[in-house]
Amino acid sequence: MNIKQEVDALTNFLRVIDKEEKYLISKADSRLGKRYAITEKTEIGGINVKSNFMTYSEMNAFFMGILTVKENRIIFT
Fold it and tell me: N or C: less crowded end of the chain, CB within 10 Å?
């Protein structure tokens, strides 16, 4: 997949977890390579980074973990 397709796929997964469109997926600059983070737009036009920068597969695994906990498929004791 190209970068746009990866961003779109991660954004769709984010919408499954968080219905609000408050957060979005942003690509890191070229120093970090092909890495993505969850971000939030600020009122003055900037962005706040809300997660670590991760590769596509790391971000997918992160979302799978969130979804698993959210659906109570794993119960922590």
Answer: C
